[in-house]
Write a structure and sequence with these properties.
By secondary structure, the chain is α/β, with parallel strands linked by helices. The protein is built from nine helices and ten strands. The strands form two sheets. The protein has an eight-stranded mixed β-sheet with strand order 3-2-1-4-8-6-9-7, sandwiched between helices.
Amino acid sequence: MNISISVVIPCYNCSETIGQCVESVVNQKQKVKEIILINDGSSDSTLEVLHKIKSSYQDILIDFVIIDQVNQGPSVARNKGLAVAKGNWIAFLDSDDMWIEDKLDIQLAIIKSYPNALILGGPSGNWQAKKKKLSVVRFSQLCFKNFFVTPSTMVKKDVIRELRFNENQKYSEDYRFFLELLATDKKKYFGVSTNFPLSMNIHGKRSYGDKGLSSNIFKMQKGELSNFRQLYKERKLSFVMYSVVVVFSNCKFFRRCIITNICN
């Protein structure tokens, strides 16, 4: 199977990090087809830096696509990237994150071992697992835990079709996207997740507990619950399953509050 990868990177006021972010993609042993950079109405020099990055890599066999839009948020930016992507796999990355050096080698090996996988991903962070493992993730399992951190994730393009990130949702919208993907055919489709990080934040920011979008766990929890409510309305979750995942989600939320001392 000929695998081609498009990388979609929303960019907002990231002039200081986007170079290192893109470099982590270019330096992969497995080369991508294209890198799509969407400037989301940045107020700093991000757009200028994007063009400089494109010029600096003009001698390599990777297409650079730069899209400039007024500020509309990462979901709109990712959707624009999805609309123009030419690869048969779409990899997501955030402008303040970077891939580990063999990220794509690992995921291409997974594709060969699991040709029917729809989503590939894993955690993000600067840590090592004691023993590296892979997990097959079905829709029902994904309802209890989001195994797929966006900067570590790739999705199969031909199954996405018209499915897009919810542009009206600011928190947990990526989780909703992954849930809806696997819900298209719960028996046929599955994801594969590593138990070790495939990406890390350039500034060392944790997934929650630090300042920034991902640290607002109250709004993230509200977004997660809205995901389950929407799946229930669409009859992709039974009432029993919906009730169970909501209770479980709230238990995880209170535990997270304790860990981050937000409830103290």
